[in-house]
Amino acid sequence: MENKGNSVVEVKGIKIGKGQPLVFLAGPCTIESKEQANRIHDQLLPLGVQFFRGGAFKPRTSPYSFQGLGYEGLKILKELKLPTISEITAIEQIPAFLESVDIIQVGARNMTNYELLKALGKIDKPVLLKRGFSSTIEEWLCAAEYILLGGNKNVILCERGIRTFDDKARFTLDFAAITYVKRMSNLPLIVDPSHAAGKAFLVKDLALAAVAAGADGLLIEVNDQPQFSVSDPEQAITPNELKEIIEKANKIKEVINK
Ligand code: PEP
Ligand code: MN
Q1: Which fold, 8-257?
Q2: How do the domains of the chain map onto residue ranges?
Q3: What local confidence, expressed as pLDDT, does residue 4 receive?
């Protein structure tokens, strides 16, 4: 069944995956304004972050929550210095994503949107595929196959926590999945400790443990003013906290490489 994707995905000269340095993708949950995106972006620039993240199309649990700036948000991302990653929610958005962002994210809620996955298989822009929070590893790897089968070999997997009976963390970060997928698949694997944690104070330890378990990089929500943010304010860490994670994660990576 297996269609091999690239073990190393290269985006604007940055290599992600096997044998490469860790990559850090960081930024706010949602692009809320040009001022907010620029302000956070400029604080991330000196930290060694490779990609700026920020949602423009937000699949919110409640239809009454802010749904994102949409195409306006993509325009804001396009003007930033750092390469970017943002979440796609529908096939008709593909042309705008192709010209605005560097990595297209498929969120947990769209992991089984097979028509979207097939359409993303026909382009060659890298796709970061999050694991659905109720999906098995097998279902997740099959979802990746939908993209690979279409010819797009630039697929990056992302573990972001699954739903279990416990509710102290927002989701349960599946560490066995990190090791399993690194062993059974050649695809690059990023871990998102922010959505798994749901609480800022849990993010650092989950992030560092994910690197020890074999993650090729981390996708982390960062906001210097989470108190004014309309989405996921409880799990955002500060740029300073991210700085500490980056320093320690790189040291852990060095140790496990030996
Ligand atoms: C996100 O990264 O902003 C997001 C919505 O994540 P997930 O799809 O993992 O819930
Ligand atoms: Mn979020």
Answers
A1: TIM Barrel (3.20.20)
A2: 8-257
A3: 87
